[in-house]
Fold this sequence. Notes:
There is one protein chain. This protein is of the alpha+beta class. It folds into four domains: 40-53 and 291-375, conserved putative lor/sdh protein from methanococcus maripaludis s2 fold (Beta Barrel), CATH 2.40.420; 57-64 and 210-288, Efflux pump adaptor protein, beta barrel domain (Elongation Factor Tu (Ef-tu), domain 3, Beta Barrel); 75-99 and 177-204, CATH 2.40.50.100; 101-174, Helix Hairpins, CATH 1.10.287. It contains four helices and 21 strands. Strands 2-9-12-11-10-13 form a six-stranded antiparallel barrel. A hairpin with a 5-residue loop joins strand 10 (231-236) and strand 11. The chain starts with a helix and ends with a strand.
Amino acid sequence: MRNKILLSFSILCVAGCGDVLAETAKDDSAATATAPIPRLRVKAELAREGTLSLDALRTGTTQAKHRVQLVAKIGGTLERRLIDRGDRVTNNQLLFDIDDRMPSIDVRRAAAGLSGAEADLKQATRSFERAKRLYKSKSLSQQSFESAEYAFEKAQAGFELAQLQHEAAKTRLEDTKVRAPRNAEVAMVMTQAGSVVGVGSPLALLVDLSNIVVGLSVSASELRFVELGSVAMGNFPDIGGESLQGSIIGISPTPDPATGAYTVDVEFPNPDGRIREAMVAHVRLALRKSSGVVLIKREAILRHDGRTAVFVVEQGDLPKAKLVFVETGKLGSSHIEITSGLSAGDQVIVDGQFSLNNGSPLLVEIYEGGSDASDR
């Protein structure tokens, strides 16, 4: 009897325990079914069709586009110096005054000579006109007529010479007043009042900083892509890293003998004069462009099994990473050309791709700072 009771209890325990195990397994299965699948957070950018500019970054120093070395055109004592270093001067402003006493005397002497030559010409003209009338009426010999003609021509030449001498004397007098040839700033003054200057003596250096020029070196292979008038972007660290747009205004036809490089001059507007001479400029030259190409960010590129690849977003109920092998073309400053493997509109992963595997579930954020229609 006791053995029957123990057997019944054992059967009941087994049955009860089986129900408990079944319920536990059911709960575990439900929990597994409702657990979220872990997804990797990435940033993606649309591949776009655009223009790729191939650039060259060069560094140079600034100089004024217009630099004027003033020299004395006449010798004498410098009576007045009216400028100092750093002064701003305007076109035709008087800068230096050279002793004009002798040039003034020369002008008066030339004026007197001109008056005498004019009187001689008038007299010779009257005599020649009378000789022509008499010769026509056969009242004057051939020899007398020719003498009158010669006297007229000589007086005419003498008058023209006197005119030239008078103009030259006035020019020498004007040269005693040294004036600014354009609006500019005084970079250097090279003489003092009271000094004796000769023809060609340096007086001052003027610079016009309204436009500045940066000379840059480019190789022979790059030179063929440089065109006059092309846009160039310059960055100027000495004025707070400000960037300005300039243009190419000159291309050297011959290379530097020492380096073999050619010089390209880029002009930048500088209306407020903040950029001074000898400041550093980092200039980006656009060498050539490729239009209508598929562009993606350079950082999206990775290597897989020795080949170039990118991860793209494969759409579906759950976005996944898809490894795509690509072929690349020209390289820009921030973007790269894709010649095969991608199309415009593909979502290319540009941040977080190095943690992915093919088929990795994704949480995608579209990168709003993506490629423009062009790349520099």
